[in-house]
Amino acid sequence: MVDTWATVGSCAQVGKHVHLSGGVGLGGVLEPVQAAPVIIEDGAFIGSRCILVEGCRIGKEAVIGAGVTITGSTKIIDVTGATPKEYKGYVPPRSVVIPGTIPKHFPAGEYQVPCALIIGQRKPSTDLKTSLNDALRDFGVSV
User: Whole-model pTM above 0.70?
Assistant: First the structure.
């Protein structure tokens, strides 16, 4: 399902049963030659106003919360365990992701920079919240 104002760039790869909510932006790949495409695996749910670019990869059935920006170099931090686990540009399957920030030191001081936080795994209750696609398909509703 591709909702209102979603933009899918050339060469982006979107799997089956993916929901792209309103205003989602998926980057395309034409240049540079070595660039990788954005890949959204089957069953993922991409929330409103997300921006996914620079060859990032979203795993099967992952849920990306509204407003998350992921690039090929974005830190994606799994905060569900006792110690954080860091990924770059890759969201593991069935992860639930929200926007976050982390401190970064610069010569001019410390500032908060964007990151994405994995706060859990997709559960049956999450599936109910993201099931609009299935209902529309089951009843043959075209939008």
Answer: yes
